[in-house]
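Two quick folds needed for the group meeting slides. Do the first one here.
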Amino acid sequence: MLLYLTLGSNDLERSGRFYDGCLSALGFIRRVTEKDEIGYGAPSDVRCRFWLVSPYDGRAASFGNGSMVTLNAASRSDVEAFYAAALANGGSDEGAPGLRPFHAHFYACYVRDPDGNKLSAVCERPE
């Protein structure tokens, strides 16, 4: 359904360090580094699917109350690696990796990036 996702950042260098760690845990690589944007994608993809940008209007980036980006993880260990990378790179805990009550195999973690955006990594495969 989605072609790509864009999040604003007030410090692209800091956000780049955060997302380099988190997204590599899920198999994504940094594909683009420009003055006002950083793009990530799968090694086999021709386009970036996840972008960090300095807001185009020049105002401060802000996060939405009730907004969250949820990323698919191939395994529970990938969820754990994402969570560890988030905390090691300036993120904050919003819920440690574990099973959630949404269904029997919903294994997730929740973090906030350095700009306050809420993220989740989820594996729905039985293990």
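Then this one, please, same format:
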Amino acid sequence: MNDHNNNIQLETAMTTTTMTMIQALRSAMDVMLERDDNVVVFGQDVGYFGGVFRCTEGLQTKYGTSRVFDAPISESGIVGVAVGMGAYGLRPVAEIQFADYVYPASDQIISEAARLRYRSAGEFTAPMTLRMPCGGGIYGGQTHSQSIEAMFTQVCGLRTVMPSNPYDAKGLLIASIENDDPVIFLEPKRLYNGPFDGHHDRPVTPWSKHPAAQVPDGYYTVPLDVAAITRPGKAVTILTYGTTVYVSQVAAEETGIDAEVIDLRSLWPLDLETIVNSVKKTGRCVIVHEATRTCGFGAELVALVQEHCFHYLEAPIERVTGWDTPYPHAQEWAYFPGPSRVGAALKRVMEV
């Protein structure tokens, strides 16, 4: 069993600072820029402006325009340059301003970055990290709110990561930068400035009012491909990631059901061992994510659970997801899978 702080690699004992996820991500890039001269950070507005969400604020001033710099409005160009940098020894951290904008770079991600190691028989790799804000949280509508993780989890050669809290965000980003494979690093916008409280029917909390978490100031990693059990339980397993980790925890508390909540953290490769052990213990499974239902990553989780745990299941597997529709602007919270929907699913599996 992997608890939330298991398998953390700390370089030395260090002080901690209260950080939001944005600050934790910035700290990760700061640490790696200082630690490794081959690390470069670039993307639209990430240099002088510090990024639209201020994730890279101050880094160009500290490390100069050769290490932290702006890119043209060309996602295919950003990723193509990152692939070339990685192939020749650099470790680029490139930002796609919103995950919704990544589609023009699909060829560079899938045909180039993901296949470079295979195509070159290991002579070249693409050690690039592609950061992308994803999901709702800013009333951005259909072109600034998409959750597109399933597009990448089925691509051989890519790693896909989505943190749910500041501590994991920093540790996972450092681990991603150090990894020799291309990593799709998805950052839930709703969590950028503090842990989400799980309630879908409340207005967006002003960013200045969000709580934060204690994060080590220096170098540490959270291993890729390892899930975290954020809430132990014996009655039902909830598989989730990103923003809906908090939704799932609230739903379990409000229903009084002894649910075990697993934060996947790395969507692919997947920590199947932790999932299988939990479902075999509980006999029930609910899958929760913000992305659309049809062909969402939850469908793959359903397939894996029934393949490995079929004879242990006491009830059909439930999925709670976003609706199969473009993300609405004014009705963002009606789209978002909140605690009431998750709670209803928990009750259904417990009634069987």
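Slide caption for protein two: The chain has two domains: 17-216, 228-351.
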